[in-house]
Amino acid sequence: MNVSDPISEIILHNYPQSPVAEKVRVALGIKGLSWRNVEIPRIPPKPMLTALTGGYRRTPVMQIGADIYCDSQCIIRELERRYPTPFLMPVSDAGLMWCLSRWTDGDLFDLGVKIVLGAAGDDLPGNFAKDRGRLYLGENWAEGLKSANAQLSHLVSQLRAPLLWLNNQLGDGRNFLLGSSPAAIDAQIYSVVWFVRGRWSGGPPFLSEFVDLERWENEVREIGHGSSSNMNPEDAMATALNANPEPVTGVAPNETQGLVEGMNVCVSPDVDGGEQPVEGKIHRADAETITIERNTKSVGTVCVHFPRAGYRVAVK
Q: Which of 54, 211, 264, 273 pairs with 294 at a CA distance of 20 to 30 A?
């Protein structure tokens, strides 16, 4: 990557404690990439981030020029497209790995979140509890937090079996889950284990049962995060303002929702997290990704990219 050209730089909007950002940081490390680090607030408001995304507030967001990539699924896919080697998805098994990622990013991650939030109980700061509770547990988040606390031992038991399976997978001495080289699945599962270990006081003793998994954790940790340097959010916004989004447009055949280029739509995560939908005009759409174009005075014309899997597209 030509790091002297600010328009082509990878900019990651994130904060250090985010497990999903850790997933992407490890992916950047696997590829050995240089990137700019913009630290964002842990809870809203996040005015400079949402100026770029149109309202999307989750972490992380990747920016390359005037192209804004939301959700780690979309980010990893774009990193693989732009920087194909070393690969994140094994060429022969990429389809299976993408299907497996829906479990690691869905049920497995949600289980880790419930354990961490449930174990924290009343120790969670009120504003953080309300924000994350609403985001991950729905409108009745307060009851959800109480339930997670009351069912903590059950939740941990549900995590134990998958970790045992992974530990057994690593029992032949392999360095990484698929063999001698790291892949996206290592980053995806590592981020959950990293979160449970670092954010739950019971994490380290719980994880000590899994000797080969702990060895693998050390292998993934040693990969690092590539090479990063800090950037302030104002400069990231200026980068978008001075760039143009990728020009490729159009809607792929067999579109199931009747979307057409230029149509006004709203895009949001397909969960009840109380989040603001992002509005814009369809720039490009296919089975994996939807890209909407937005224009504002502060960042100019940007294209905001979302996955189709796990996101809802509503025609305005």
A: 273
